[in-house]
Specification:
The chain has 197 residues and is of the alpha+beta class. Helices cover 30% and strands 21% of the residues. Strands 1, 2, 3, 4, 5 and 8 form a six-stranded antiparallel sheet that branches. A two-stranded antiparallel ribbon has the order 6-7. A hairpin with a 3-residue loop joins β6 and β7. It is globular.
């Protein structure tokens, strides 16, 4: 088509800039931190399955996988549920936070996660802890995760994979971990999660 065609109008630069800004995640991957937990079934196999499912997501690459920790369930009486295996993964993704959340829920459902009781036992929990430096109080996805900075089972493995990490708006993971302490978070050196090939 000839550029002299009078029906073809140039796209204003301001429109191009707005489209590019909206599309920034497509060409500019973001770092995100995902927390994984399981206290039903084969917990280690489930966590590895979740990591593999994340890696199989278009526009997402798993960059680091923490050691496995065993922790008591949060918010329930001791012994009322099996203990959790917890881990943290660092990812780079071109997905926006809302799509990452949908993918996390789809992975939970694939492992037959049932959401019928707050702090109930679960085959799999996939939580977005942080997404780049985004701070958002959107009720559908609050970023960073509203309780992550209080939970040793998130902070300990996160510190393992990224000792210099910061919780957006709240400061260094190392400082938050020092305040919370490591009580109740037991390293499982006998267990290992693989970084996908």
């Amino acid at each position: 088509m000839s550029s002299s065609d009078p029906t073809v109008q140039p796209v204003p630069a301001s429109v191009v800039e707005r489209v590019d800004a909206a599309d920034v995640t497509l060409s500019n991957p973001k770092w995100a931190v995902i927390s994984l937990g399981s206290n039903l079934g084969n917990r280690l196999e489930t966590l590895q399955g979740a990591i593999d499912a994340l890696e199989d997501t278009p526009g997402l690459r798993v960059k680091a996988v923490s050691p496995v920790y065993e922790t008591e369930p949060w918010g329930v009486d001791s012994g009322a549920q099996p203990s959790y295996f917890n881990a943290v993964v660092l990812i780079k993704t071109t997905l926006p936070p809302s799509s990452l959340l949908e993918r996390g829920h789809a992975i939970e459902e694939a492992f037959e996660r049932v959401r019928d009781e707050r702090w109930g036992p679960r085959t799999l929990d996939v939580d977005i802890v942080s997404y780049q430096d985004v701070v958002s109080d959107d009720p559908a996805l609050t970023l960073p995760h509203p309780r992550a900075h209080q939970r040793a089972f998130v902070l300990v493995p996160w510190h393992d994979v990224d000792p210099g990490a910061e919780v957006p708006g709240l400061g260094a993971v190392s400082r938050l971990l020092a305040e919370v302490g490591r009580e109740g978070v037991q390293a499982r050196a006998d267990l290992e999660l693989r970084l996908p090939e």
